[in-house]
Every structure is written in structure tokens, then in C-alpha cells.
Diadenosine tetraphosphate (Ap4A) hydrolase-like HIT family hydrolase
Amino acid sequence: MSFTINNQILSSCFELGDGPVSKILLKNNADYPWLILVPRVENIQEIDQLPTKIRYLLIDEMSSLSNLMRVYFKPHKLNIGALGNIVSQLHIHIIGRFTHDKLWPHAVWQAAEATPYHEQSLQPTLAHLRAQVRLLFKE
């Protein structure tokens, strides 16, 4: 089965690995810990369009990764959503929010420009998250 991720998503992210249903990505935005899950199903725009079994697995995947975000980043709140207004390919955002972040309590979508990760913080973050994704999903 062929599967491609929209270039607009890929160009702003780092790959972390695969869950049972999704490709798991880290958005290159150091302002917020931000995972993006892209279900490996072609031509789907909404969660309710997924086959039932895949939809349930996706919810489990989202829950596992939400817990990983809480443990590793310790956010005050998680924002989880699948908007698709700009990129219609189904993808789910899991964003860690802090009461001291730039836009709290407003939506991160209002941010004019993302702050990319610095190399010295990026590499340890990627290594840790990739290892955790492998452990979670036994790659």
C-alpha cells in the first residue's frame, strides 16, 4: 500500500517513528512541544472516515502519545485536534501548552512564526522521543 505525507507537513517536521496506525512527527517549533500524527491511510480528511478498527487504534495511539508528552514535557495543558483547514490530509496535533508560553491562553494557530529548535536541544529531544516511540509501539 502506497502512503505519502503532504509536503507542507513534512517540511516543518522531524520523523520520530511509527505507531500502529500513524507516522509520528515532531513539529520544528521550539515554542511548544508539538507532535503530529499522520494516519497511514490515503485520501482521508476526517477521523470519522477511518475504518472503525483503525479509528480505535488511532485513539489509543493519541492517548499513548499524550501520556508521553505529559511525562516528558510536563505541560500545563494538552491541546489535541485535527483541523485540516490548510492541509486537508488527516493529521492530528498534540501540543503541549504552558501558562507561560507566548500565546497562553490563546490558540497556537495565531503565532506568526515558529521558533525552530536549536541543534543542541534538538538532538537530545529527538533521540529521547524516538526511543520512547519505539518502546511504546515496539518497533
Remarks:
- The longest strand covers residues 13-18.
- The mean pLDDT is 95.
- The chain has one domain: 7-137.
